[in-house]
Each structure stands twice: as structure tokens, then as C-alpha cells.
Amino acid sequence: PSEPDDEPEEMQQTNLIVKRVLDSNPLLEAFGNAKTCRNDNSSRFSKYVKLQFHLEYLSRAFPSCHIAGSRCETYLLEKSRVVSHASKIGERTFHIFYQLLAAPEEFKARIWSGLEGKDASSFNYVGHNDTDTIEGLTDAQRWRRTIFALEILGVRDDKLMTLLRALCAVLQLGNLTFSADPTNDDASVISSKDELEKLSNIIGIPSDDIVQALTHRSVTVAADDTTFKVHMNSEQAKDTCDAFAKEIYSNIFDWLVGEINDATCAENNFEKSSGGRFGNIGLLDIFGFECFEVNQFEQLCINHANEKLQQKFTSDIFCTVKDEYDAEGIVLREILYTDNTNILNLLEKKCGIIDLLNEECVRPRGSDTGFVNKLYAHNKDPDIPLVRNRRYQRHEFAVEHYAGIVKYDASMIVAKNMDKLSEDVVECGVKSSNELIRSSLKARKRDKQEKNKGSLITNTVWTKFKAQLGSLMDCIGQTKTRYVRCINPNPDKTPGVLDLKYSVFQLRCAGIVSAVTMSRAAFPNRLTYQHILERFRFLAEMGIQKEKNFLLDVMKSADAREKQDVKALLSYLLEPLEVVSNSGEVTKAFVCGNTRVYFRAGALEHLESERLTAYDRFATKIQSRVRRNKAVQEYRVLAKNPPPKQIRRRDGLISSIFINMMPFLPIPFLIMRQVVSFPLWIIGHPFRRRRN
After folding, report:
1. Beta bridge partners of 220
2. pLDDT at 550
């Protein structure tokens, strides 16, 4: 291979873009992946990556194709994992926090003095860590990979420090503790003064402003447009603090995705463009269908996305089956398959889940139980896939998805859908000395002002996700889609072990079972003409009746008549499975296409059963012939080497006569059989036909 200096400029430029595209993946894993009970490196977000190719290279012999860049869109980051995760069962928060705490001490001191000598147990949002190795790499090793990837993308020096200090601010927010105000039961105070001062230091906001923003909220009276402050209790203050941490981390993630797109997109990095025209290959990596012991708003959104993808998948499979039958020249009758349109109607149509949830978000005193009550009140039709169960609590409901019934816990569903952050917290965050935190909250403030001019419903989390999902499906609909399904062999993450029940459940959740059922609905089995002749031809040659002997000549004809040969062969072999309607129309158990034969249900099984039965008869005949030959050989040896006289004398006269006469004993029986069967042969007894 040539040296880098000898490569063409286009090749060097493309290699740099490819390197950036590849190095962006560890970054997204670091900031968006976490260890769960099912996967050590589970993506806690969904992404759609568009690989952009320069069209000029598509028609050249060399180079055959060049990647020009990529763009990434992300969906549904699991922000709740920032503030809580199931550490008791071995789960972790996002990888980047553990990598940050595993960095060298001198580097941690450069970032923030509060990181020196600290580990995961020093921060409440991270907590105890039972392992520091993910997929064979320690957190320290992954830290080096993350920093290297950031430098490749141009995130270095001050920009790098701003990013890492914003992460430290998120960690430090989790160390704040709130307690009731001794002078006012409805108020709260921050009892961890040292942690508050550290937060003030890293985020660059005066501590008094932080206290005011986290323990008070502004209330505006619409009548006279006046605003006043009200106290929040310790629980409300803690929720506000957690919401602030989630907002900062979400902004960090969005900022990182923007930096990746700026560093990799073809529009900014590929010089030789053809009028901005690029070919795209899209890679969609999205959550699979989820059903846990407790399913909340996040799982409802994820399963909504999977329902949309399942609809597209079903449509593609149906089109594939139709195209195959059309290519084979087979008339496609009605194919019954599972359609999830009623589930999507329950989610998206009027008085559906999204509509009623948005309505509850607009109500001044909207509640989670009020949403569930409305959901059941407006969807009483038994055909609607909304499961009713008296054992469910007031805040629970269930939906019968294509993969099974999922029970949802509606606790905090209204608040999560509104994704509200106190205006006081936003005003406080705008004062931050951290550019990343300050700029992102300023953008949120502007969006808030624009939102006040429009409808509140258009700005809920689920409504925005629905719009993103619709845009994504439109984009996918313009492409030729291929599907890759990932199956986890067992829930214990044990190598070399396959849990069949667990794997089949995943196949059902991925839509594979329904796809196979649909593709095999009309003709479950199919074989090529050559395969059929090789496998079943002997059945007709060995068991055919005399009046149908003409088929043998047909089957021994030239290869050009292969299709006719197979049709004649199967018409004879599958005659017992033909169905005759009342009008006299005969429906055969098979249909011949242009390149293969399609069998109806049970037809191929019948052929295989007949084949095995024939093999049993052949085996019996072979065994009898082998046993006969063996006995004849033993007799001939005995005849040539008779036993000694003393043995014959001891056996007696009768046994000696019997041994000498044994070769001639079958002759009378054979003569008698021929005499008896001769008249029957003349009159055509069925016995002869059975023999033939």
C-alpha cells in the first residue's frame, strides 16, 4: 500500500472523514450507553445515522465509492438514568461518569479540584460500582479512547474543559440534600452547605441564587399579571434539583451530537461536492420492544416507535411476498396477517392515549389518575386493544401490543410528558459561567417564549416525538429497507447458553414470528424443480400403477420439460390431497411457479412421509437379501465341510437326513406357489398389481 503522502488528496480527505465518523461512535456510547441487567453496553437512546456518499464517485471504476460524511439524529435519551438507576441489580448510570472518575488524578485536578481523590461512591447519582470493566475494557481505558475521539472531532483545550465541568456540575447537583425548614413546614432548605459551595464553584452561580431557584418557584396570577414566590417542600425541591441535572445532561448530549455532525457532515467537510447532492445510506438503531416489571412513560414511547416500525416491517414483508408471487406467475389470494393498525389508532387517533394525555397536561389540575380514567372512559369498544382488569390500580392501564400485553404505570406521566423546568431554575442557569450550560438554557428560554405564543399541546414530549417519528418514517419510506435483528441468547449474560423461551420471546417482540407466519400463510413450503425430481422421483417409479405408466416416459424426457415432469410427478403423488369443491373445481395441493413449486399446508409433509415409508420398505428388502445371502454362504461352507462322523452319529439318523435334504426342501413349496398363482395371473387378480 502507498504511503499517506502518496495518496490522492481526495483519498486523504475521505480517510479523515471516515476516521471522524468511526471515532464518533465511542463518544455516543460513552455519553448515551449504560450497563443494564440485560446488556453491559446498552444504548439508552435511539439514533438515525445517515452516511453520505459523494455521487461523483459512484460511476467511476476507481475509486468505486467514497464516503463524504455523516449526520446523526437522536431520539428518546433516557434522562431519568442520570438521577437514578437500579444499582442493587448491577446497573450503572451513563459510562461517561465512571470514565471521568477513572481519569488520572492530575487530569482531574485540571478539570475541577472537587474531583481529586473522588470515586463513584463520592457522588449520589453514581453510587457504588461493582465493576469497572465493560466488554473487556476498563473505565480508565475507555476514558483515553473518549478523550482521543473528542480531540479528533476538534473538542479540545477550553472547549473540552467546558464539557467536562458541565458533567461535574451534574454530579455535584446529586450531592445536594434538602430538609424541611424549621420555621416553616411548607418550606425547605439545603442542609449540605459544603456541597452547595462546591456546586457554586463548578457551575459559576452564586450559592444564594442556587438556593432561591431550587427551594422557591414563581407563580403568576393571570388576572393582574403579577408574579410572586412560593416555597417548595423538601420533596419538591429535590425533584427540581433532579430536573435541573437531567436538563443539563440532556443539553450536553444534544451539544455533543451537534459537534459530531459539524465535524462529520459532508456539507461542512467535503470540498468536492456536486451541487450539494449526496447519496445516503441510513442506519437506524432504535430501542427494541420493552416489557419490564414496571413500565412507565419511557417504555410507552419506545413501544409506540416499535409499533410504527412493525407496521412498516409488515408492509415490507407483504410487498416482498407479493413481488415473489408475481415474479413466479402465481395468483396471490387474500393473505391473513396480524395488523397493528388498531393499536396505532389507540395511540395516535382522537381520544387516543396521546390526545388524552396532552389534554390532561393542559388542564390546570391534570393528574395521572385523571388521565387513566379518561382513557378507559373514551375507549369502551371491545375491539380496542386496551386491556381492562379490576386488579389494576387507579394509575395503571395495559395495552395489547403486537408482541403481547404490557401493563403501564402512569405515575408522573403527566409531568414527564410536559417536561417542565421551573422558570426560576432556567433564570438561575442562564447566569452560569459555563458556556455550554448558559447557552443551552438561553435557547430553552427563547423556545419557552415562542411556545407561549402557540399551543401547549404542540410542545409536549410525546407530541414532539410523534412528529420526529413521522418524519423518520417518511424518510425510511423513500428508501429500500433492510432489517437486522439482535437476539440476546439468555438474560444472565452467560456465554454459550441459549434460553429458548427467552429467545423466542425476543423473536416475537421483533416481529419475526408474525413475518414468517405471513410469508408462509398461503404456501408454507417451496422447493426447486430439480430438488423435487432428485428427492421424490423414485416414489413414482417404484409405486406407480400400470394405467399411469406414461408418466415414466414424461419424466425421462429432456431437461427442457422439467416443469412438466414435476407437475406430472406431483399430480400423481399428491392426488389424495386434492380438494374438490361443490362446483366440481379441483384444488391441487401445489402450484408450479416459474422457478419453483409452492406447496400448500401438509403437502410437503405428506411427500416426506411417503419417502420415509419407501425407505423403510427398501431397508427391509435389503436386510432380507443380506440375511439370505449370509445363510446361503453359511450353508455352502457347511456343505463343503460337513461335521465329523462322530458328531453326525451323535446327532442321530433323523438329524443327518434333515441336514442332507435341506437344500431340496423349498422346491415343493415354490412349485405349489406357481401352480396356484398361474390361474390368477391369467384372469388379472389384484395381487399382481400390488406386486408391480
Report:
1. 227
2. 40
Strand ranges (DSSP E) for 392-450? Answer: 396-401, 404-409
Could you identify the residue written with the cell 425541591?
237
- 658-664 long-range contacts (CB < 8 A, ≥24 apart) are 662/635, 663/635, 663/639
Give the H or E element holding residue 345.
Answer: helix 341-348
Ranges of the chain with pLDDT below 70: 1-14, 55-65, 222-225, 272-277, 333-337, 450-458, 542-560, 643-667, 669-670, 673-692
The residue written with cell numbers 406386486 in the block is 691
Query: 57: which DSSP letter?
Result: G
CA distance 596 to 573: 17
CB 589 within 8 A of CB 603: yes
Residue 178 has what pLDDT? Answer: 94
Distance CA 190, CA 205 (A): 15
User: Per residue in 28-63, pLDDT tens?
Assistant: 999 999 998 888 898 999 999 999 887 664 455 554
The three-class DSSP label of residue 61 is: coil
Beta pairing partners, 401: 404
Number of other residues whose CB lies within 10 A of the CB of residue 678: 9
Per residue in 55-100, pLDDT (tens digit) is 664 455 554 567 888 999 998 899 999 999 888 888 999 999 999 9
- DSSP letter for 489, please: S
Question: Which SS3 state, helix, strand or coil, does residue 64 take?
Answer: coil
Contacts 24+ apart (CB under 8 A), 630-635: 635/662, 635/663
Q: What distance in Å separates the CA atoms of residue 266 and residue 11, rounded to the nearest whole number?
A: 14
Q: Is 37 exposed, middle or buried (0-12, 13-18, 19+ CB in 10 A)?
A: middle
Distance CA 538, CA 532 (A): 10
- Grouping H, G, I as helix, E, B as strand and the rest as coil, residue 101 is helix
Which pLDDT value is given to residue 584?
A: 82
Give residue 552's pLDDT: 46
* Cα 136-137-142 angle, rounded to 5 deg: 155
Q: How far is CA 479 from CA 220, 281, 283, 312, in A?
A: 50, 9, 11, 12
Sign of the CA dihedral running 83, 85, 90, 94? negative
- Total residue count of the chain as it appears in this document: 692
Q: Pick from 39, 113, 48: which is nearest to 76 by CA?
A: 48
